[in-house]
Predict the 3D structure of the following.
Amino acid sequence: MLVREPRPEPIPGKIGVLFSDEFRGFLYERRQGPPGEPPRGIGVPLVIGEPSVGLIREALGLLFSNVVEVSSVEAEGDHVGVIVPSIFSVDYTVLRTRVEVVYRFTLHRPSGEPVASWSITGVGLSPRLDDFGLALVSDRVRQCLALSMRDAAWNFTSGFSEQPAVRRWLEEHGLR
């Protein structure tokens, strides 16, 4: 659940969101070993795509009064624009379990023309090894991943209108 107080006042209008197949199916697997050499093992696989779809839907639902999934950046109908998220990077450390996920968002006009593109980072942190009880390392990493994704979604929601190009776009549409 993403809701925090204070909630932003929803922006009137219909926004489209385009989740690519690559985004939906994103799975992070860190291979361990020196660059250029065969990996010695595989780190904790992290399913990020589908859970991110849900969080971003929720975040956009807090931002806009009407959110619909679209299949193209060229929106048909009365959309004010289309947002396309992507997963830019993921990393984690195990000792003091920390997961960082960076999303990239691109806002398009209904014509498909890009308006703004920016990155949002989320961090999930467990400062001590026993913060999640006697959980396996993989469970601690996954729990910190969930925290980092929620942090990124909240950062997206709370900072959306702070992006200069987004602010101009909102003003052009009389939305803020």
Observations:
- The helical segments are 21-24, 49-63, 137-159, 164-172.
- The chain has four helices and nine strands.
- The CA atoms of residues 131 and 140 lie 8 Å apart.
